[in-house]
Amino acid sequence: MTEDFRIRFLIVDDQQSIRKLCMTIGASLGFVCAEAESAEDALVYLEASAADIVLVDLKMANMGGLEVLGTLKKMLPRTEVAIMTGYGSVETAVQAMRLGAYDYITKPFRVEEMKLVLQRMAEKVRLVAENQFLLEQVRTQMELNGIVGSSARIQDVLRMVARLKDTRTPVLITGESGTGKELVARAIHFGGVYAKRPFVAVDCGSLVPTLIESELFGYEKGAFTGAVRTKAGLFQHADGGTIFLDEIGELPMEMQAKLLRVLQEKEVRPVGSNQKVRVDVRVLAATNRDLEAAYKAGTFRKDLYFRLNVVTLHLAALRERKSDIPTLVRWFLGRIAPNRGLQVSNAAMNCLLNYEWPGNVRELENCIERAVALGGDAMVIDVDDLPPSIQGAATIGPGARVPAISAGVSNAAEGEPSMDLVAMERATIQRVFDQVGGDKTLARQILGISRATLYRKIKLYNIRIGQQAAAVSSTS
Ligand SMILES: Nc1ncnc2c1ncn2[C@@H]1O[C@H](COP(=O)(O)OP(=O)(O)OP(=O)(O)O)[C@@H](O)[C@H]1O
Ligand SMILES: [Mg+2]
């Protein structure tokens, strides 16, 4: 999106020569440029056409730069404004920054200097727009397929799902029980162009071994006792669409060979029939076993493994992506108790974050369901509403070993935050800083915290800040 996103730039100055120079600089940076010779003209212009970046002279007749700045920030909060001053007064500049100016530049300026300021502003505008775009994209995807989570690992999964949904590529989905393998398989099928075709889920683990073949490929009338009429198998039912082979690791060796043949030849032979039937089926397989180890140990066919595993999509255990827990909890609450505005107390959230979740997302979902049922009319889910094993996590989990670092952020009324929370907060703040290239104002906006809190956390967590950014923010 960056390529077709052209920055709209407005220069406001009563000196024609300055306007001309700035327009040239703006054009050289690829901006769409416009000029106004007074503050009043600028506001009239901005009523009709928006600008991403505005450069305003501080001293103009009638309305000065500071006034324009105030009005503009209210009118177009996303527009970035820089002030030009011929007087070099630091106080006015500071006042401008306080009113929301991005930066200031003193006249006379060097072209390179002006270029740098404009470039940095453009970068920020693009970053904010891109962030917004990504957030919306992720949100749309989340809403579409019900895969919730903000951790990098879930974001990777969402990206993979988006890439695979319109293809016929076989995908092997791996992950512990309850990590969302079936959810992802459904998202791949129902999110893409084949959504209207059939989706057939087969639990290979629960098929009766002697009946697997007839279940999958169908049978002819009279093929065996009880086969009173010809019956199509699951593969025929899935024709044109997707077959989801869940727990593929449970498939007996003999069936593995038959499945491989079907995948290679794209046809099935119903039990008791001489005729083969063509099927066009996309195969998604899932397992919570380590199939690589299984084929190395000789319990799973290597050739089938490679045929199924053209793409692997691994779902991390919930304990490896605990930052998804608050989002998932909110999501489940919204689904289980819509419109009730239920909250989770800090202490209860602490327990949820400290617990190891052997049953992964399914266990979390059950836990929230149980808490809502037990909580009756209460508006807040508290520790007492959680199962005893999870309540215990607050004291016996890794969170119990809270090191001295958390003392600085602890809130006596809420108890000490756990190590996970501390580590997560630190990582989040660092990540945002890296993303915004050290821009404190932008970081603060993205994180949604006050300036004072931000400064406190930077110090507490020893956050790395880009060199260039540090120099600029020292004036803010
Ligand atoms: N990222 C997620 N966002 C929202 N819900 C999720 C997520 N992951 C899993 N769930 C929910 O958790 C439950 C378990 O998911 P699913 O059945 O897909 O897991 P699974 O990996 O197939 O488990 P198993 O190996 O036991 O079959 C489902 O109710 C599913 O909707
Ligand atoms: Mg499953």
TrEMBL record:
SUPFAM superfamilies: CheY-like (SSF52172), Homeodomain-like (SSF46689), P-loop containing nucleoside triphosphate hydrolases (SSF52540). The modification 4-aspartylphosphate is found at residue 57. PROSITE patterns: RESPONSE_REGULATORY (PS50110), SIGMA54_INTERACT_1 (PS00675), SIGMA54_INTERACT_2 (PS00676), SIGMA54_INTERACT_3 (PS00688), SIGMA54_INTERACT_4 (PS50045). GO terms for biological process: phosphorelay signal transduction system; regulation of DNA-templated transcription. The keyword Signal does not apply. Residues 147-373 form the Sigma-54 factor interaction domain. Gene3D superfamilies: 1.10.8.60, 3.40.50.2300, Homeodomain-like, P-loop containing nucleotide triphosphate hydrolases. GO terms for molecular function: ATP binding; sequence-specific DNA binding. Pfam families: AAA_lid_14, HTH_8, Response_reg, Sigma54_activat. Residues 8-122 form the Response regulatory domain. InterPro entries: AAA+_ATPase, AAA_lid_NorR, CheY-like_superfamily, Homeodomain-like_sf, HTH_Fis, P-loop_NTPase, Sig_transdc_resp-reg_receiver, Sigma_54_int. Keywords: ATP-binding, DNA-binding, Nucleotide-binding, Phosphoprotein, Transcription, Transcription regulation. This is Sigma-54-dependent Fis family transcriptional regulator. It comes from Candidatus Korobacter versatilis.
